[in-house]
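Quick illustration, no need to memorize.
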Amino acid sequence: MAISKAQFKKIALSFPEAHEKASYGSPAIFVAKKFFTRLREQDDSIVWIVGSIDERDHMLEMDPATYFITEHYKDYPSVLVRTSRIDQAMLKKMLERRWRAIAPKKLIKEVDAAAPPAKKAGAKAKKRAKRAV
């Protein structure tokens, strides 16, 4: 399990338009001009922005061994994820969710259009499900 610094960087930078730059003096990953994620070496965790503070609080309650926050993050829809508690597949899934939330819509469409047929079918099924609601 446990994600290394090299694995984190490789996965985070594999997303389209992801690039590294400083954020408040620390290395961070951005997509376009938006904050994507960063590795916190001081406590071996990853900053992951989620959909809401309610969602974050639910994660903290359900799995405090994996998710936590510091005083700095208490007013933000962000959670810190212990690198020792996740694997590469989970990291990629977490970051894909964040990438889809912040990437330019045109870029998402291009990526989805270039995806293998199985992924395209999944995206179409999601669209149909949304329309049915």
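The radius of gyration is 16 Å.
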